[in-house]
Amino acid sequence: MITYPLSLPPTPGYSKINFTATNVVGITRSPFTLQQQVYQWQGEGWSVSVSMPPMSQPTAEAWMTFLVSLRGTLGTFYLGDPAHSAPRGTTGGTPVVNTAQSSMSSTLMTRGWTSGATFLAGDFIQLGTGVQQRLYKVLTNQTANTGGFITFDIFPVLREGVSDAQPITLLNPAGTFRLTKDTRVFDMDAAYIFGIDFACEEAL
């Protein structure tokens, strides 16, 4: 029996992957003064489009079966950014969440880092597992203080509340996604070479 979330087939790597960060912001402009009023709504998140390289049938079957097994937008799967499989800074220690924090927060308090450990803006961290496994991008460079504490600005906002001492995953971080459409299209040429593309978004 198929249980979600699924893991992606291990090979091949993508030929192209595109991460899109979306915010929901309301803005009005006076027709007389052009003065703007801006309101930031809570909605923000990731959407991703993936293109696979040309594949022979045996390799392509694993990907086609994976995509069909999702049953359109019903099923979920894990996906991360292959360019950020590990932090680029001088991280060290065993980082965890520092005190319980509420959902929709744009910051994350952490502890357990080695004093002086650095984390570079743009890298990803993962919180949670299963259907609540989430992928967050760190937005500013940070250095752990002498107590091993770091507070991160993150995107998107926390999807769920987090508990004190909750583990933080640094290696191969991934979030839970679902397809954006119920249709899946598989191209095949006369030499039985397959092309596969798909788009997904965070499973919320």
Q: Mind explaining what this structure looks like?
A:
This protein has one helix at 57-69, and strands at 16-29, 36-51, 55-56, 77-79, 93-97, 107-113, 118-119, 124-127, 134-138, 142-143, 150-155, 168-169, 175-179, 186-188, 193-202. Strands 1, 2, 3, 4, 13, 14 and 15 form a 7-stranded antiparallel β-sheet that branches. A 6-stranded antiparallel β-sheet has the order 5-6-11-9-8-12, with no helix packed on it. A two-stranded antiparallel sheet has the order 7-10. The protein has 2 domains: 1-80 and 176-204, Phosphorylase Kinase, domain 1 (2-Layer Sandwich); 84-173, Elongation Factor Tu (Ef-tu), domain 3 (Beta Barrel). With 204 residues, the protein is mainly β. It is globular, with a radius of gyration of 20 Å. The model has no long low-confidence stretch (mean pLDDT 95).
Give the secondary structure arrangement, pairings included.
Blueprint: E1 16-29, E2 36-51, E3 55-56, H1 57-69, E4 77-79, E5 93-97, E6 107-113, E7 118-119, E8 124-127, E9 134-138, E10 142-143, E11 150-155, E12 168-169, E13 175-179, E14 186-188, E15 193-202
